[in-house]
Structure formats: structure tokens, C-alpha cells
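Workshop exercise sheet. Pairs work together: one partner reads the sequence aloud, the other fills in the structure field after running the prediction. Swap roles for the next sheet.
Pair: D.N. / O.F.
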Amino acid sequence: MIASFGVTEAHGGSDVANIKTRAVQDGDDFIISGTKMFSTNAGTALHGFSTVVAITDPELGPKGLSSFVVPVGTPGFSVGKPSNKIGWRFADSVELYLDDVRIPARNMIGNRGDGLKQVLSVLSIGRILVGATGLGLARRAIDLAKSYGRDRELFGASILKHQGWLFH
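Structure field:
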């Protein structure tokens, strides 16, 4: 079973303090409504649940965030189509739609209000991976450009031998 991570929202990017997805307690349940984007792994066949971050206590701002496990198949929970990305193709990125999704309160991860520190912990590791991936993609782009420039001929010479390219 594979889990996905639902934090990013269209209006706020990875600005966790700007999360609008709401989780309202209703007895022994929470009802979650909102949309997430760029949720990694949510489009795979083995996708079993998503970790969704939502605001439970709006008056506390970012300290009112909590995290929940939302199983695939829960009524009101749906997954969009994968994004067409440049690079980072080893894992899909999709939108998650939560339309009055009812889950038991026991699906909360940790304590109410722990969401911010949980997200920041995960993102600190993820940002290192994104940086390393960006560096790898840049290196591959340079290698492809050099190869193309070396192999492509124009007016009887490699395009890398022409004056305009030498300036770069």
C-alpha cells in the first residue's frame, strides 16, 4: 500500500500557513472539505490512503493545523489525473478532492494542532530531495546540449565551433 501527502493548495503553494482545507469535528468524526494539488503517489494503483493536512482551529492560524489519514474509497474523496511534468517523473502528482469527507476522529495523526510541525518535518527532507533532483536535471540538460552541439553540423562544422555559441 502506498500513501500520498496532501498539503499543497492552488492558492498558497507550499505556504502551510495559507491552508484552506477545513476539518470540522462532528461528534466522533471529522468532516473534511477542500482541494490539494501536487499530491505525490496518489495516482498509483497501490494508493491506499492520503495524509491530508487541514485547519481544525482557524483562530489559531497555522498552529490550528492537524493531519489526518484519509483512506481511498471514502465517500467524497477522489483523485484527479496526473500532472504532465518536466522531470520528477518517478512519482506522479495529482489533485485530491475532499467533498465533505467523513472520517473517524481516530484518523487524526498525533494531536490536534500538530499538523504544522509534522508538515515542516516532512518538507525539510523533501526540499533536499527536490534540490538534488533539480541539480541532476540541470546536469542532464547540459550533457544533452553539449552532445547536440558537438554532433549537429551547420555549414560544414559543429555548431559549437560557430562564433555565437562560443560567447556562451
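Discussion prompt: The two ends are 49 Å apart (CA to CA). What would you look at next?
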